[in-house]
Amino acid sequence: MEFFIDQVQIVLPVLGFDFTQPRPGAGQHEGASTDSPVFELRKVGAVATAQEIDGQFVVFAGSTTRKKGVPSWRSYKALREKLVADGSLVDSGDPACLVFAENVAFNSPSAAASAVMARASNGRVNWTVKATGETYADWQDAKLAEVVKSAAANAENNFQMVPSNFKIVSI
Q: pTM to 2 decimals?
């Protein structure tokens, strides 16, 4: 049963359900101990780094964002305005950029990408693994495939432990 719970806690955040995960603390930093690599977004003059920590997508302090959003931007605009209002995003000295004053946890890579790029953004495509250039989507799909393969192998092992004289009947 413990193995099952562990697998559920791995799979649910991958599928977008984070209720089993604790919220990341303000003390998290780039390269913190986690299964997630560090991701990078370098577009529209912004340079940001982030990491998936405890089911949240955490953009690290010091990351820059585009200051002025595009006129058609609606998604996550209110969230970004809140980050500016509460001091999480501050002037950087560059008239075209803002900078994250602290680590900020987002519910999705798309929310983080939209806040960084000041426009609608598919974070699964725009965030890339800093070390390899692999997209977040490719990394997440590979992680999910690994979990499924592990669960299938475990299920096969458990099935082999059923005594040969045990009969499985469908109802």
A: 0.71
List pLDDT tens digits, range 72-127: 999 899 999 999 999 999 998 899 999 999 999 999 999 999 999 999 999 999 99
Sheet with 64-66, strands from edge to edge, namely 64-66, 97-100, 89-91
Reference 118, options 48, 22, 38; nearest CA is 48
Interatomic CA distance for residues 98 and 84, integer angstroms: 9
Beta-bridge partners for 135? 128
Residues 111, 113: Cα–Cα separation, whole Å? 6
**Two tokens at 146?**
């690994």
**Which residues neighbour 123 within 8 Å (Cβ) at sequence distance 6 or greater?**
57, 108, 109, 110, 111, 112, 113, 114, 136
Residues composing the chain: 171
Q: What are phi and psi of 41, to 5 degrees?
A: -130, 120
CB distance 101 to 88 below 8 Å: yes
How many angstroms separate the most distant Cα atoms in the chain? 76
The amino acid at 143: K
